[in-house]
Amino acid sequence: MDTQTAFQEVTDLLQPWARWTKQVQPNLLTVSISRAHLLPAVKALIDARWGYLSAITGLHLPLAAALAPAYDGPEPDPLITGGSFVVLYHFCNGDAVLNLRVHPPSIKDTRVPSICGLIPSATLYERELMEMFGIEVEGTPDTSHLLLPDEWPDGVYPLRKDYHGPAAPAQL
Amino acid sequence: MANQTKTEKFIIPIGPQHPALKEPGHFEFTVDGEIVTGATARLGYVHRGIEKGCEERNYIQDLYLLERICGICSHVHATAYALGVEKLANVTVTPRAQAIRQVVAELERIHSHMLWLGVAAHEAGFETLFMYSWRDRETVMDLLEGLTGNRVHYSANVLGGVKCDITPEQRDAILRGLDYLDERMQYYMNVVTSDETFLGRTRGVGVLTYEQAETLGSVGPTARASGVTRDIRLESPYLVYSEFPVKVILDDGCDLLARFVVRIKELFESSRVIRLIVDNLPAGELTVRMPRRIPENEAVSRVEAPRGELFYYLKSNGTDMPERIKVRTPSICNWSSVVVTAIGHKLADIPMILAGIDPCFSCSDRSVQICSASGGVSKIWTWEQLRQYGIEYYR
C-alpha cells in the first residue's frame, strides 16, 4: 500500500472522532482527537490492522502554544500557567506514519486513558510519560519508575520545559 | 512438615551488576526450583538525560550527543537524527552522501552482529566462538576506522551529508575485508547450526511465537526470527535502500537458534549490499548547505538499526535548538519479549535468552546528569566544566 492510500484509509477510519487532520510531511499525518475518543480510535486502528504502535511521545507546550486551536474540552482557563501537554501516539504502516494527537486541557488536568488494555506493550511508553512529564495515565497497569532512580523526588518531571536540572554545579 | 509443603514464591534478584551481561540491569526472577515462573525488569541505571540535553543544545551539538546514545550502533542514531533534521529543513542530501551513509550503516550492522555473536557464544560457555568472532570483528572495525577515523563513534554524518568519502583504495580494502568476512561467516553458520553442544543451548530455547512477537511489538532480528516481516529498510526505504535494496531474512524457528541464523544470514546480506554500493557509488558532492535555524515543523525519522526499528520524533521551533527530540530505541521494544519467553525455562538458560534479543542498556535508558563520582561525593558537572576537564586531561 502506498503512503497516500494508507493515509486515505486512516482518515476514513478515524473520521468519526477526528477534530482536525493535517499532513505535516509527505509521510506524516497528524490526526487530533479528544481524549474521550482515544480508546475507540485506537481500537479502530487495531481492528483494521492499520500499522502498529511504534512509540508514544509527550510534548510540553508553554502557554502560548497551548492556546492553539487543538485542545480537548472547554475553553482553557488563561489564568492557569504552566501550559499543557500533548500526547502523540505514533502508528506506523509501511512508510506512512500517523500521529494520533491527544491534547488534555491544562497542566492541572493531564489525564489521558491508558491504551494498555488494547496494546500491552504501551506500558513502557506510558510509564515514561508519567515519570518524565507527570501526565496522569488512567488505568495503566504499572506506575513504578522506569528510567529515573527510585529516590527521585516526587513532583519533579525532567522533560517539562520549566525543569533545568539540578542547580549549582560542584567546583572541580 | 507443614512448612515444607507450603508453596512460597522464591525470588532471585539479579543485578544491577549483572553476572552475565556487561551492562547494568536489574531482574527479578520468580523460581520454582530451577524453573522460572515469572520475571520483571528494572532499567534506568545508565539513564543520562539525553533527550532533555538535546533541547538545550543546537542542532549540530545534538548530532554528536545523540550519536553517543549507543556505543555499538552510534551511526544509526546519527543517521536517524540527520535524516529527521534534513526533513525539517527541507534539504535534500546528494545520493553519494546517502550511499556512503548506507555503507557505514551496513558495516556497522556487521560489527554489531559479530559483537553479538561473540557475546551470545560467551553466555553459552562457548569461549572459542566468542574469541573467533571478536577477532574477525576487528576486520570490520579496521574498515570503519579507515573510512571515518574512528572505531566506534565514527561521526560519519554531518547535517547535510557525510564528512568522509570512499576512495578507490578504501573501496579495495572494503572488498578485501568482506571477502575474508564472508568466508568466516560461512564458518560461523556451520558452527551454530551443527555443533550439538551449542544446539543444545539454542534449539527450542526462548520460543517467541509469531503472535507473541506481533502483540509484544518486537522488532528487528528478534521479530524476524519469529517470522514477522518487519524491516524499515524495506517498509520505508531511506538513504539509498530503494536503489540498493536488501532482502528480508525471515525464519520461522522462533527460538534462539533462529535468532542466530537470522543474524548470520543478515551478515551475508549486508556484505552483498556493501559490495554493490561501493562498486556503483553515485557521483556528487558530499555535503549540501544546511541552515542554522530550522523553521517550525515536525518530522518522524525511522531507520533499521542492527537491533530493529529505531524511531525518532523531532519538533523544531524556528530557533537553532530543537523543541523536542524523542528517541525510541529497538531494545525497549524487545524487553517485553524476554520477560515472556523466560517463563518456563531453567534459570541457567536466562543469560542466553537475555542475550538473544541483543539487549542494549544504554539504548533502553538513553536519556541523568551525574558525570563523575569522585571521593565518594557525586558531582554534577556543567558542559563547560566537562569540556575543560577533557582539555586538561589530554594536555
Describe the overall structure.
The complex is a heterodimer of chains A (172) and B (395). With 172 residues, chain A is of the alpha/beta class. Chain A has a domain of 112 residues: Beta Polymerase, domain 2 (2-Layer Sandwich), CATH 3.30.460.80. Chain A contains 4 helices and 7 strands, in the order αββαβαβββαβ. The longest helix of chain A is centred in the first third of the chain and has 12 residues. About 6% of the residues of chain A have low confidence. Chain B has one domain: Cytochrome-c3 Hydrogenase, chain B (Orthogonal Bundle), CATH 1.10.645.10. Helix content of chain B is 50%, strand content 14%. Chain B is globular and about 60 Å long. At the A-B interface, strand 3 and strand 4 of A face helix 2, strand 6, strand 7, strand 8 and helix 13 of B.
CATH 2nd-level architecture of chain B: Orthogonal Bundle
CATH fold-level label of the domain at 3-114 in chain A:
Beta Polymerase, domain 2
How many helices of chain A? The count is 4
- Kindly provide the radius of gyration of chain A, computed on alpha-carbon positions and rounded to a whole number of angstroms: 17 Å
- Please give the CATH class of the domain at 3-114 in chain A: Alpha Beta
Q: What is the fold's blueprint, element by element?
A:
The complex is a heterodimer of chains A (172) and B (395).
Chain A: H1 3-14, E1 18-25, E2 28-33, H2 38-47, E3 52-61, H3 63-66, E4 84-93, E5 96-102, E6 112-113, H4 123-133, E7 137-138
Parallel strand pairs in A: 2-5, 6-7
Antiparallel strand pairs in A: 1-2, 3-4, 4-5
Chain B: H1 2-5, E1 10-14, E2 26-32, E3 35-42, H2 50-55, H3 59-67, H4 74-89, H5 95-123, H6 127-148, E4 157-158, E5 161-162, H7 168-194, H8 196-202, H9 210-215, H10 220-224, H11 232-235, H12 256-279, E6 297-305, E7 308-316, E8 322-328, H13 330-342, H14 350-356, H15 361-365, E9 372-374, E10 377-379, H16 383-394
Antiparallel strand pairs in B: 1-2, 2-3, 4-5, 6-7, 7-8, 9-10
Helix pairs in contact in B: 3-4, 5-6, 5-12, 5-14, 6-7, 7-12
